Amino acid sequence: MSSEIGIEEVKTACSALSVWAHIATVGADNAPDVVPVHPCWDGEVLWIMVGLTSTKTKNVDANPQVALHWQVTENGDGVEVWGSARVLSDIDTKRRLWTGVFDYDLDGFAPGGPDNSPDTAFMEVTVDRALVMKMYGMGGMQRYSRN
Q1: CA–CA distance from 80 to each of 23, 56, 85, 100, 138 (Å)?
Q2: Can you tell me the distance from the alpha carbon of 41 to that of 48, in angstroms, rounded to the nearest whole number?
Q3: In whole angstroms, what is the distance from residue 81 CA to residue 41 CA?
Q4: By the 8 A CB rule, do 22 and 36 touch?
């Protein structure tokens, strides 16, 4: 059984599972790459702190389509999100996101703060659709679509 939900229900389901997700990107060579990330929500947008030279940043530059998967619980509950991403490294974005959006201290990864961390950027993920599953889908599925 499947039902439609809003973005707030998707955010709640993600938060209930884990602060960690895995993001899948595809580079210019068409090779996929999957890495763990600690995304944080700001309204309807997911933000991820990234390095400007990271594989995921290079991949998004080549292909903005991404997918994220939150850790599955022992019960088989999980969340999948699909969307488009872009990487922002401008100082205004860095200053805005540095405090108040992330639930961890960004200075631990970029001690220079927003003004003195030139290799630090933020990936903005616009969520197009999502799937919230209970018991690997056998306990029900809820779908979100931005359109």
Answers
A1: 10, 18, 15, 25, 15
A2: 9
A3: 13
A4: yes
Q: How far apart, in whole angstroms, are the C-alpha atoms of residue 132 and residue 32?
A: 23
CATH code for the domain of 120: 2.30.110.10
DSSP 106: G
Q: Which residues of the chain have pLDDT under 70?
A: 1-2
Contact 122, 94 (CB under 8 A): yes
How many independent structural domains does the chain possess? 1
Is residue 45 a contact partner of residue 93, using CB atoms and an 8 Å limit? Answer: no
How many alpha carbons fall within 13 Å on the CB side of residue 62?
15
Burial class, 29, CB count within 10 angstroms (exposed 0-12 / middle 13-18 / buried 19+): exposed
Domain housing 62: 2-145
| Structure token pair of residue 50 | 């990234």
- Reported as a single tens digit per residue, the pLDDT across 68-96 is 999 788 888 899 999 999 999 999 999 99
pTM for this predicted structure: 0.92
Nearest to 10 by CA among 102, 74, 82, 79: 79
Q: Tell me what pLDDT residue 93 has.
A: 96
